[in-house]
Write a structure and sequence with these properties.
mainly alpha
Length: about 150
């Protein structure tokens, strides 16, 4: 039986692909912010892009030096992964039309359903809904009032 960690030709393909995509997204973001007219608007996306690129390069190096026997894809429910990504994409597409809070509800609900492995009951549903409302209101207040970010 061969162990993938002992085979130098077999690396974490999934991890390398995703980390490479994050490096590309960081570079695209850095290129995009060059066109911003307001210099204050450049700071946050640039910082996040640099951190994303740096951390992704670290993941690539670590993955290359110490491969994962699961080949970077792991074992788990694919529907959960797809739901998480789909809810984030739908939230991004809905935000310009419906606004920040409805899009955040979509992202939060999709993420919560994808992450919750235990069963649902009335109490846990109410606790998660209440805590989600507080978190979303907090982010809205942070962006809108503390940071002065114009929200749709």
């Amino acid at each position: 039986m061969t162990d993938s960690s002992s085979n130098p030709a077999r690396k974490d393909i999934g991890t390398l692909i995703v980390a490479g995509l994050f490096v590309a997204l960081g570079l695209i973001t850095l290129n995009d912010v060059k066109g911003y007219s307001d210099t204050d608007s450049i700071v946050f996306p640039s910082f996040v892009a640099y951190v994303l690129i740096f951390m992704s390069v670290l993941v690539i190096i670590y993955s290359w030096l110490k491969p994962n026997p699961d080949n970077g894809f792991g074992k788990g429910d694919w529907w959960r992964r797809l739901l998480l990504v789909a809810s984030m994409i739908v939230a991004c597409l809905v935000m310009p039309y419906a606004g920040f809070l409805p899009a955040t509800v979509i992202a939060f609900a999709g993420s919560l359903i994808a992450a919750r492995h235990e069963g649902w009951d009335m109490r846990s549903g109410l606790v998660f809904a209440g805590s989600g409302a507080v978190i979303m209101a907090g982010f809205y207040a942070l962006f809108r009032f503390a940071l002065g970010v114009p929200l749709p």
